[in-house]
Design brief:
By secondary structure, the chain is an alpha+beta fold. The chain has four helices and twelve strands; from the N terminus they run βαββαββββααβββββ. The strands form two sheets. The chain has a seven-stranded mixed beta sheet with strand order 1-2-3-7-6-5-4, with helices on both faces. Strands 11-10-9-8-12 form a five-stranded antiparallel beta sheet, with no helix packed on it.
Length: 229
Amino acid sequence: MKLNEIHFESIDSTNTFARENAGTLPVPSLITAREQTAGRGRHGKSFYSPKDTGIYFTLLFEPESGFDLITPAAAVCVCEAVQELTGKTAEIKWVNDIFYGGAKVAGILCEKINSGGLIAAGIGINLTTSDFPAGIPSAGSLGAVTDGISLARRISEKLLAVSENFDRDEIIRGYSRRLFILGRKVRYEKNGVLREGTASGINADCNLIVSLEDGIDILNSGEISLILS
């Protein structure tokens, strides 16, 4: 499958571009940028995307029907491609953050484009970023000198291959293997109540299983934070 590629030195958001031009872009298309002026993360958060220190991109594609683990699959593809092109071992913090050296180095935002099957899988990776705003203290970078566009292309090719040969069990195994929070104490909010427990695993839908003193909790969305001892 030929991958159409579009590159910008600077853009507001590659996901926004994909959404606004989905009707005319070939599918699949890879939109890359060296800077985003209005990068977006989950829950309406911004994604810091300074010029020339990272790679920010969106894969616009139409996965096979029933492929409902796009974000976990994308996280695994990011880790695999980073390992292959930089030699660095990245890990996953449920549900969509990529960590290296104890800091967040990449984020993933997958969005449905319309009532059809189009998906915009947006990924931002900090390659050498070092000067972060005060509001994102957990951010870091891979410290990797590599061609960002080649990395974006490799991740996209992997995600397309996974979507064409969807294997739920393989995705869950790959995701769980890289999930560094397992066995650790976490804090989260659910139904307006702050809770604490131990991240003990994920289920077949990639929901997080949290062991509590009085049972278990299943999280299908939201944010968690590690409780440092």
